[in-house]
Amino acid sequence: MVDYLEDETCRRFVLPALDRAGWNEDQIAPQYTINAGRIRVTARGHQRDQELRADYALEYEPGLVIGVVEAKRTRKDAQDGIEQAKRYAVKLDVPFAYATNGTMIYEIDLATGMITEVQGFPSPDELWSRYRSAKGVADGLPSELLTAPFDASLRNWDNTPKRPRYYQQVAVNRAVHAIARGDTRILLVLATGTGKTLAAFQIVSKLWHSRWTRGRKPRVLYLADRNILVDQPKDEYFEPVFGEAVYKLGGGEAKHGRNIYFALYQSMDQPGDQEALFKQYDPDYFDLIIVDECHRGSAREDSQWRNILEHFSPATQIGLTATPVSSRDADTYHYFGDPIYEYSLAQGIEDGFLAPYRVRKVRLNVDMTGWRPEPGQRDIYGKELPDDLYGPREYERIIAILERTGEAAQYLTEYLYNADRMGKTIVFCENTDHAGRMMQALHNANRDMVRRYPNYVCRITARDESVGRALLDGFRKVDSDQPVIAVTSRLLSTGVDIPTVRNIVLFRRIASMPEFKQVIGRGTRLFEDAGKLSFDIIDFVEATRLFNDPGFDGIPIRVFRDDTDETGHLIETEAEETEQDAEGEVTSECDDSAPTPDDPRPADQVVDPDQINNIIARGRRYYVKDVPVYVWGDAFYLAEGDGTRLRLVEYRQYVKERVLELHLSPTELRSQWAQAKARGELTEKLGGEYGVSVEELAEQLGRPEADPIDLLIHVAWDAALVTREERARRVRREHRKFLESFGPEAEQILERVLEQYASHGPDELSPQVLRLAPFTEMGSVVELAGRFGGAEDLKQALDQLGQHIYDVA
After folding, report:
1. Name one GO molecular function term (predicted).
2. Angle made by CA atoms 286, 289, 295, in degrees to the nearest 5
């Protein structure tokens, strides 16, 4: 038999077989893209894995996939495609997958668990009937409810269509199927940043265009507990498509004659002489109620807001959340039932739809050891300080150590200076007062930036009212430069879509796993047009250790720990163990009397919880200064292997093991490093496969004057270190004939290259640097290359210069 390649197999066999079964070209979607490909951080920035694509998706109606096909070339066994086809089907939530090599076809029926060799593909109507049966949707229900198209009216910021991703389509289809079956309580769990609002919009759109409510359009109520959670979906999703059918309730008076209502719980249940707004509507007035962030507010059975949902009990109610809760006081599952679909942050990162993250843990000395006042010591306002050993649970609630906030602000300023001073950053503080002092400290530490950008640092809290809302609007805009650093307490912890945020700073203790995930979710959104493909978590309070949930949140790319001496100076960098700590069940509410793993004090020295509550009740907080505060250490984690877990080792040891895995001698390493192309390949391999950034190596090892190759060899084989300046001097001394073998003008270029190498490193040995200053002062690239006889001769001269630089240890 002739061995046809995969494309030819598809053209000669697969497509004709589908045609014979009755599938037309509009129902066959070739090279159907499922995900975007995971983003991986490399030494040169970021790179994406290959997209996941099915050879063919079989669509009964546009956007409604009911089967997938994986094709192999004719000489391969058709069974070789079974696992791939099954993977696609599971992802797309379709019951049927097919693997074929053109002559044999295997059907994988996920509904029955059977794999069967079949003679041909089923017809569209046959597969549709089996699909409905597998989904538990009776044949008697109107097809319009199931086959209504996805709405393509919305646009992204760059005017491209806002199309639902595969998991959003799955969530929407499952919700619609559940509604078709008559389910009235539905829960969708989608990680922050994965587009719950778009899913809600598409559900409403499908119901709007179907015959779900015969003879009229459905009446929908969209409920949330914050204005931004109501205004953003109303203004950006529903009004542009449904126009005057959309209305926001408020003012205590019922409004009729519209179809899609938005409301705050608060406005629906305002106390006063007038009857509560929700009671002015009949219980069966709304057909559908969407409850955004349903883990809050109405999640508790005794919640006053639960009365609203119970009043409208005849309506179909859909709960949306990234973080369902289940505790004695609040239980999302008890009211809505088990989720009909879950899509986690880990899945979003794996699919390349969400940004992976790095974690930098920072511990201050007073957090590690606690702080106790001297006998009779008074705060800055003259109040005598109660004699106790205070720790993180009391800081900013009872005791505010001014230097603690100042040191954190200084650390963050230095971090941004080395990373990106215009990288949008959210700093979460304990309370509004703490946020104000943190804003001031950051403002003063960044005076140079504030002079250029007056709103470089701003406090955005509920107390800042209209000014804060205006600043938040600017912070959210993808094309705005200000604010850069937003300091808050809780206001920005949920429901705020800020795709350009690059840093999440945790300076507030968090005792709720849902809240932690909501906070981290502020950074998970991608914005590739601005180069935002990952984000950083800077954790001053050990929140990431307390609430890390790999099954839902994925594994951080890397975390480093920098140990310092008692004066705060860096000693060495080492990795920290990251096996997940089982600290027990964490409730949804903050229990400040409960022990916490970050508290350094013995149990008998912890401040009495009753004393804490009494001080807070009296509105007293003590402010102290002149306390020595410094960074005890910070941590930077490195992910290894397939990224499913972290093996944390001392940094030097980690680098040594990676270098030895290259199976190259020191001489071979230097030889490769000497040539620009080979140097790039080696750098890529170290960064991409092993997570060793040669750009960060000098900083992490505290030797900025050394060449990366010397640092690698020094760490792996304990070889003596030489500086780049020493290597440049040796070339001038021992290879003068080489330099003088070129004309004076060409020799001048090589001398300048040596100077740049000594100052900045091996990147200066590439022909590309001739396009930059100071070489542009000497002429254009073409002119400079001409001094060597042409571009190829220039490249050869630079490679020879590199060989002389690295020819000996």
Report:
1. helicase activity
2. 155
Kindly report, residue by residue over 161-197, the tens digit of the pLDDT: 889 999 999 999 999 989 988 899 999 999 888 889 9
Phi/psi for 129 (5° steps) reads -65, -45
Closest CA to 355 of 481, 491, 544, 501: 501
Residue pair 444/459 in contact (Cβ under 8 Å)? The answer is no
Distance between CA atoms of residues 35 and 27, nearest Å: 20
Structure-block tokens of residue 262: 């938005």
CB neighbour list of residue 401: distance below 8 Å, 6 or more residues apart: 366, 371, 395, 624, 625, 627, 629
| Position 381, amino acid | Y
Q: Name 709's Cβ contacts closer than 8 Å, sequence gap at least 6.
A: 669, 670, 673, 762, 806
Contact 121, 57 (CB under 8 A): no
Our measurement of the distance from residue 99's CA atom to the centroid of its chain's CA atoms, rounded to an integer in Å, reads 35
Return the residue matching tokens 């060449």.
707
The CA-to-CA distance between both ends of the chain, in Å, stands at 60
The separation between CA 808 and the C-alpha centre of its own chain, rounded to angstroms, equals: 45
In 293-425, alpha helices (H): 306-311, 332-336, 345-351, 365-369, 402-418
Residue among 470, 511, 517, 518 at smallest CA distance from 492:
518
Q: Write out pLDDT tens, residues 76-130.
A: 888 989 999 999 999 999 999 999 998 899 999 999 999 999 999 999 999 999 9
Look at 455 and 700; give whichever has higher pLDDT: 455
CB 535 within 8 A of CB 505: no
Torsion, Cα of 529, 530, 534, 536 (10° steps): -160
CB 290 within 8 A of CB 316: no
Q: Which residues are within 8 A (CB) of 634 and not within 5 positions of it... i.e. 6 or more apart? A: 360, 361, 362, 363, 411, 560, 561, 562
Residue 456 in this model has a pLDDT that exceeds 90: yes
Q: What distance in Å separates the CA atoms of residue 653 and residue 573, rounded to the nearest whole number?
A: 11
Distance separating alpha carbons of residues 28 and 587, to the nearest angstrom: 49
Interstrand relation of 185-190 and 341-343 (parallel, antiparallel or unpaired)? parallel
Q: What is the CA radius of gyration of the chain?
A: 31
Contact 537, 360 (CB under 8 A): yes
Q: By the 8 A CB rule, do 21 and 121 touch?
A: yes
Please answer whether residues 669 and 712 qualify as being in contact, where contact means their C-beta atoms are separated by less than 8 angstroms.
yes
Q: Pick 745 or 584 by higher pLDDT.
A: 745
Nearest to 362 by CA among 446, 283, 269, 427: 427
For every residue of 180-232, which 3-state class applies, written as one string? HHCCCEEEEEECCCCCHHHHHHHHHHHHHCCCCCCCCCCCEEEEECCHHHHHH
Residues 6+ apart with CB under 8 A from 774: 752, 756
Q: Please state the length of the chain.
A: 809
Paired tokens of 689: 């496969």
Cis before residue 271, ω within 30 degrees of 0?
no
Mean pLDDT for all residues in the chain: 81
**Beta-bridge mates of residue 186:** 318
